[in-house]
Automatic annotation (TrEMBL):
It is found in: Cytoplasm. This is Galactokinase. The record marks 28 as: Transition state stabilizer. It catalyses: alpha-D-galactose + ATP = alpha-D-galactose 1-phosphate + ADP + H(+). ATP binds at residues 68, 121-127. It comes from Corallococcus macrosporus. It is an enzyme of class 2 (transferase). The active site is at residue 171. Residues 276-356 form the GHMP kinase C-terminal domain. Substrate binds at residues 34-37, 220. Residues 92-176 form the GHMP kinase N-terminal domain. Keywords: ATP-binding, Carbohydrate metabolism, Cytoplasm, Galactose metabolism, Kinase, Magnesium, Metal-binding, Nucleotide-binding, Transferase. Mg(2+) binds at residues 127, 159. Belongs to the GHMP kinase family. GalK subfamily.
Length: 378
């Protein structure tokens, strides 16, 4: 049974009728442009065919009642002044109600069933998928206009101000605005998007190391502060405003740690723009080389990889048909992404799975994914 069928069936069982709407929001894999979004830089993610689904219908009493299939738990709250009580899954839904009201919207209540298959804490944006699916549910029952960038910014506010995580805008932008069959080159300063078709000569393979990040928030915030220190040194608003040449001229004046952090971001922005060009030109060798260089920079300069990510990336690169591989998302665990020739993808997945299991004792999840459409009502 598909996820859609599961949430619809469970809805029927709980509420005694068919849902009046079904909404979905995808997870994402970032192909390149890591830790650049909060530096006003460039990213090149795809929305993937791993999703969060909600089957729902409006309620007349101003309450939201949701059952989560994944947590086998229900949540019920009244739309009105809300307070945050923890970090549970339900806080994302309450946070969305809070942010939409803060933005001046009048919300109607609804009841629904939610289920998803975006692995949690794996760097595939399961939380942005929950945020955007919930926004779409509220928008559907309350008649709100759906403008992806506006909704992405509100989703980011939930993350930043309700959940207390100081993340950038990439995840919500791609989850809201993804295009089937395309990556999106996103300018994280002005939020403009350029869809770039995925070349037919490659498929995207997710390699989940099975390791999960710990203590990421503090390490993530520390990286942000180091980037801000570097921007102050160069006298610019964000590292986006420093090009590779300017950096090379003055890098010796920087504190060595801040220098490495800045070098990653500045070269990564450059790689991301070149990667989009390579993708447009169908130059998969070049795209793969840039992905490899991105990983090495995240490992050596930005220091956000772990042993498992470094191992799976090296194993992937050694396989026939692999153009390039790198970690994806915030790092410190979770997933890598590889670009692989379609005819060799099956053998690639089997071989990386076996070799990684043997090398680390961890069982990875390796699968080909498709570039999916952003958040939608079906
Ligand atoms: C996480 C954050 F949520 C994003 O905003 C981004 O910074 C990413 O890490 C690193 O590129 O997914």
């Amino acid at each position: 049974m598909t996820l859609r069928e599961q949430v619809e069936q469970d809805f029927h069982r709980r509420f005694g009728a068919a849902p009046t709407a079904v909404v979905r929001a995808p997870g994402r894999v970032n192909l390149i442009g890591e830790h650049t979004d909060y530096n006003d830089g460039f990213v090149l993610p795809i929305a993937i065919d791993r999703e969060v689904w909600i089957a729902l219908r409006p309620r007349e009493d101003g309450r939201v009642v949701v059952h989560s299939l994944d947590y086998s738990a229900s949540l019920s709250f009244e739309i009105g002044p809300l307070s945050r009580v923890g970090t549970e899954w339900g806080e994302y839904l309450k946070g969305v109600a809070w942010v939409l009201r803060e933005a001046g919207h009048t919300l109607k209540g609804w009841e629904g069933v939610m289920g998803g298959n975006v692995p949690r804490g794996a760097g595939l944006s399961s939380s942005a998928a929950v945020e955007l699916a919930t926004e779409r549910a509220f928008a559907t029952v309350s008649g709100l206009a759906w403008q992806p960038a506006t909704m992405a910014l509100l989703g980011q506010r939930v993350e930043n101000q309700w959940m207390g995580l100081h993340t950038g805008i990439m995840d919500q932008m791609i989850v809201a605005g993804g295009r089937e069959g395309h990556a999106l080159l996103i300018d994280c300063r002005d939020l403009s998007l350029q869809p770039v078709p995925l070349p037919a000569g490659a498929v995207v393979v997710v390699l989940d190391t099975g390791t999960r990040r710990g203590l990421v928030d503090s390490a993530y915030n520390e990286r942000r502060s180091q980037c801000e220190a570097a921007a102050r040194f160069f006298g610019v608003k964000a590292l986006r405003d420093v090009d590779v040449q300017t950096f090379t001229k003055r890098e010796q004046e920087l504190d060595p740690l801040v220098r490495r952090r800045a070098r990653h971001v500045i070269t990564e922005n450059d790689r991301t723009l070149r990667a989009a060009d390579a993708m447009r030109a169908g130059d998969l060798q070049q795209l793969g080389r840039l992905m490899d260089a991105s990983h090495d920079s995240l490992r050596d300069d930005f220091e956000v990889t772990n042993e498992a990510l470094n191992t799976i990336v090296l194993l992937a690169r050694a396989e026939p048909g692999c153009f390039g591989a790198r970690m994806t998302g915030a790092g410190f665990g979770g997933c890598a992404v590889a670009l692989v020739a379609p005819g060799q993808a099956e053998a690639f997945v089997q071989s990386v799975h076996a070799k990684y299991t043997q090398a680390t004792g961890n069982t990875p999840q390796c699968y080909v994914c498709q570039a999916a459409e952003g958040t939608s009502v079906v």
